[in-house]
Design a protein that fits this description.
Layout: H1 3-29, H2 32-39, E1 46-51, E2 55-75, E3 81-86, E4 93-94, E5 99-103, H3 106-141, H4 147-179, E6 182-184, E7 189-191, E8 201-202, E9 211-226, H5 227-238, E10 251-255, E11 266-271, E12 281-288, E13 300-317, E14 322-323, E15 329-334, E16 340-351, E17 354-359, E18 366-370, E19 382-385, H6 388-392, H7 396-406
Parallel strand pairs: 1-19
Antiparallel strand pairs: 1-18, 2-9, 2-13, 3-5, 3-8, 4-7, 5-6, 7-9, 9-12, 10-11, 10-13, 11-12, 13-17, 14-15, 15-16, 15-18, 16-17
Length: about 400
């Protein structure tokens, strides 16, 4: 072995020994006890919570229906004759009593004149008969005429009086029929197309209407509700879970076919007294003002009907509720011990972008509305209170995370 090799080993031997000692000491510092302490030194994940506070909420039901005219009149002739003129414009507004058609009145005028002549003849006969009966009454008093003659004169007087009454009735009938030659509308509203033109022959009480008049202001909206929903509503009202929205008629709002909201509010007028055996539903009728004729008969609409007021309603953001494998609604709650709890909820209905919870949550519970992806049931968490408005607008990721944790 050379002198240089011995010298190299002599110089590096203390250095190697020092490195070995340093590595051993470092291994001792990272012992099992110290590693566990570092692992538990991290803070619990932070989540946003919403403290449950029951409050009064007006509950509504959205029901499908169609518009129906407030009044409708099918105009038909009451006499037979030929149409001479049409006195309206199709699709226009007409007033009650306005003449729509003129039927040829010549024959009815002649009938009236004949009836008046018959009445005049009967009245003239009554005058002479009355005078004769009066004279016979005086003569019979002095036995100048027989009692039989007096009785015959009295009978003739009564006959003449009856003839006058019959002639007067004939005159009134002729006047009525003459009036029927002017076909008028019984209601105010919008008139549709005409089924006849001048020159057409019409008959009394014919099956085909000459025209149809519909009153559109106000207008009805007929909607249907299942009998099961009606029974549930009645039960909630009876048991006090719901209070009636007011002493008057329930208010109704309307959504049109294009999704827009009808600007005027209606009122629920009545509910059908029987259940339709085919559909198992009950018809509800609401009445709406329609001054601009925006609503037309037969339109499909959706009515938002007030059901009542829940005095202690619990509303939670829909984004904070997920579904488990069985379809049950679930949510995560931060317990008093600072650990996450899973709750199974019963949701009665949606109210805007929130769920109305009937069971599973109570006042004071801290519902986790954000940060759901950071925690799981049984794990610790730190809760930060959220305002009601921010909780309602929870991000979409919260809903996804909630679903994942629930499953």
């Amino acid at each position: 072995m050379s002198t240089s090799n011995v010298s190299f080993r002599t110089r590096w031997l203390p250095v190697a020994a020092g490195l070995t000692i340093a590595l051993v000491l470092a291994g001792c510092d990272r012992g099992p006890g110290n590693g566990a302490q570092a692992g538990h030194g991290g803070a619990a994940p932070q989540v946003t919570v919403l403290t449950i506070q029951p409050r009064p909420v007006a509950l509504t039901a959205e029901l499908a229906g169609r518009t129906t005219p407030y009044l409708i009149a099918e105009v038909r002739p009451q006499i037979t004759g030929v149409i001479k003129a049409r006195a309206f414009t199709e699709g226009s507004e007409v007033k009650a009593g306005q003449v729509l058609y003129q039927v040829d009145s010549a024959s009815y005028e002649a009938t009236l004149e004949s009836a008046r002549a018959t009445l005049a003849k009967a009245e003239a006969n009554l005058t002479t008969t009355k005078l004769k009966a009066g004279r016979y009454e005086e003569l019979a008093g002095i036995d100048a005429v027989s009692k039989q003659a007096r009785d015959d004169a009295q009978a003739a007087l009564k006959q003449a009086q009856a003839d006058v009454s019959a002639a007067q009735a004939a005159v009134r009938t002729a006047q009525i029929e003459l009036g029927y030659t002017r076909v008028s509308t019984p209601i105010s509203g919008r008139i549709g197309r005409s089924a006849v033109t001048p020159g057409a022959l019409v008959t009394a009480n014919q099956a085909t209407a000459l025209a149809t008049v519909q009153q559109l202001d106000p207008i009805y909206v007929d909607v249907t509700q299942t009998s099961a929903e009606m029974l549930r509503l009645q039960r909630d009202l009876a048991e006090g879970r719901l209070q009636r929205a007011g002493n008057g008629q329930a208010k109704v709002k309307l959504l049109l076919e294009d999704g827009s909201t009808y600007p005027l509010e209606g009122k629920l007028q009545f509910s059908e007294l029987s259940v339709d055996t085919g559909s198992g539903s009950v018809t509800l009728r609401a009445v709406f003002p329609n001054p601009q004729r925006q609503l037309l008969p037969g339109m499909y609409v959706r009515a938002i009907v007030e059901k009542g007021v829940s005095e202690q309603a619990i509303l939670v953001p829909q984004a904070a509720v997920s579904r488990d494998a069985k379809g049950n609604a679930t949510a995560l709650v931060l317990g008093p011990d600072g650990k996450v709890q899973a709750r199974t909820l019963q949701t009665a209905q949606s109210v805007g972008d929130q769920w109305l919870v009937s069971s599973g949550l109570k006042a004071g519970d801290k519902l986790i509305v954000d940060g759901l992806h950071k925690v799981q049931p049984g794990a610790p968490a730190q809760g930060v209170e959220a305002s009601a408005s921010s909780a309602t607008a929870a991000p979409a990721s919260a809903s996804t995370a909630s679903t994942a944790s629930a499953n």
